């Protein structure tokens, strides 16, 4: 049976179970918070940053009896946590100093992104028989997929339109009065300019915006704007829910999307008790999607309805843990340790 050997600098032979953490090399405070607890509990772990793995990557494919990761054997009792993988801009940085036309830049970027995706999946497969806290293959869904599954679980969702027609959008605006648009992939894209970073966040669409559109445009995602009392960010680990209320509607800057943070006057955030019926529906959705961690976004409308928006399977949990004193990073560390000792 063909087996693949991987050689990554800095690994050693082990005689005990290991916790593997897939992460990024930069801007991963949540990963580091969990690692602090693993260090506190004296738990064995290895952090695998996607950028580092791709930068120092070797394989030998041959017929052997044992499956090894470098000099380190992977056990089915090892635990793996997929937190993040490749930093944004990793591919483009490889050839940013080259003189290329826009078309060639796009083509090379698209090609290399595809190549890295293949190698990443090949790498992940070496750990497929381990115990996973979030498996990367379970993250390949869009916001549209989630909305359909939410309906199956009897959750309320905003009225939604996917269209490339200006006429259909006008009709939707007339029936909904106020509408928003957002990207449908997980992890909104951003533009990294020389002196700033522009994120593609949820935004309200006005009649003036529609008037400026062409009769046909790239297929886009629109929803009725829900007037809210407040919104809920609910992080989950296994079947444990950690709900937080965010009073974002009190600030014009964060009214549509609380991720448009007002750092000088932050939104008020407090722990929240979910109605039992809503909690059951959320747990059913999580179970249906085979997710073990992630963030659920819900709105409490001015009509006292709970409206489901989306799930981010690799959402930040520090922003929920710290204001509410939930210690989610400790819970994740303890979960990994339990997975690694069973």
Q: Explain this structure to me?
A:
There is one protein chain. With 342 residues, the protein is of the alpha+beta class. The chain folds into three domains: 2-134 and 334-341, no CATH class; 141-157 and 226-313, ATP-grasp fold, B domain (D-amino Acid Aminotransferase, Chain A, domain 1); 159-225, no CATH class. The protein is built from ten helices and 19 strands. The protein has helices spanning 29-40, 50-55, 90-93, 102-125, 143-152, 166-176, 207-211, 276-288, 318-324, 328-341, and strands spanning 2-6, 19-23, 45-49, 59-63, 68-69, 72-73, 79-82, 131-133, 160-165, 179-181, 190-192, 197-199, 203-205, 216-224, 228-237, 240-246, 269-271, 293-301, 306-312. The strands form six sheets. Strands 17-16-15-18-19 form a five-stranded antiparallel β-sheet, sandwiched between helices. Strands 3-2-7-8 form a four-stranded parallel β-sheet. It has a four-stranded antiparallel β-sheet with strand order 9-14-10-13. Strand 11 (190-192) and strand 12 (197-199) form a beta hairpin. Helix 1 packs across helix 10. It is globular, with a radius of gyration of 22 Å. It starts with a strand and ends with a helix. Residues 1-15 have low confidence and may be disordered.
């Amino acid at each position: 049976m063909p087996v693949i050997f991987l050689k990554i600098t800095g690994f050693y032979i082990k005689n005990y179970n290991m916790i593997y953490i897939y992460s990024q090399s930069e801007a991963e405070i949540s990963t580091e918070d969990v690692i602090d607890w693993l260090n506190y509990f004296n738990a064995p772990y290895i952090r695998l940053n996607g950028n580092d793995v791709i930068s120092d990557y070797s394989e030998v494919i041959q017929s052997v009896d044992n499956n090894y990761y470098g000099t380190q054997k992977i056990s089915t009792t090892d635990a793996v946590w997929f937190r993040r993988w490749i930093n944004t801009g990793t591919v483009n940085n490889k050839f940013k100093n080259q003189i290329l036309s826009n078309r060639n830049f796009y083509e090379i970027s698209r090609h290399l992104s595809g190549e890295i995706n293949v190698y990443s999946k090949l790498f992940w497969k070496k750990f497929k028989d381990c115990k996973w806290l979030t498996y990367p293959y379970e993250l390949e869904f869009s916001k549209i997929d989630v909305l359909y599954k939410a309906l199956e679980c009897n959750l309320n969702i905003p009225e939604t339109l996917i269209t490339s027609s200006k006429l259909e959008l006008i009709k939707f605006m007339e029936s909904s009065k106020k509408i928003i648009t957002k990207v449908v992939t997980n992890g909104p894209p951003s533009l990294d300019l020389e002196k700033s970073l522009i994120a593609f966040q949820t935004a309200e669409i006005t009649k003036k915006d529609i008037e400026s559109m062409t009769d046909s445009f790239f297929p886009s995602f629109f929803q009725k704007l829900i007037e809210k009392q407040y919104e809920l960010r609910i992080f989950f680990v296994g079947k444990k829910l950690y709900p937080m209320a965010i009073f974002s509607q009190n600030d014009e800057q964060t009214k549509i999307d609380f991720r448009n943070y007002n750092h000088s006057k932050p939104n008020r955030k407090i722990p929240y008790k979910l109605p039992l019926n809503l909690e059951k529906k959320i747990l059913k959705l999580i179970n249906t999607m085979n997710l073990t961690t992630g963030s659920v976004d819900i709105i409490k409308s001015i009509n006292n309805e709970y409206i489901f928006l989306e799930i981010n399977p690799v959402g930040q949990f520090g922003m929920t843990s710290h204001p509410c004193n939930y210690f989610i990073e400790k819970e994740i560390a303890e979960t990994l340790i339990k997975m690694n000792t069973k």
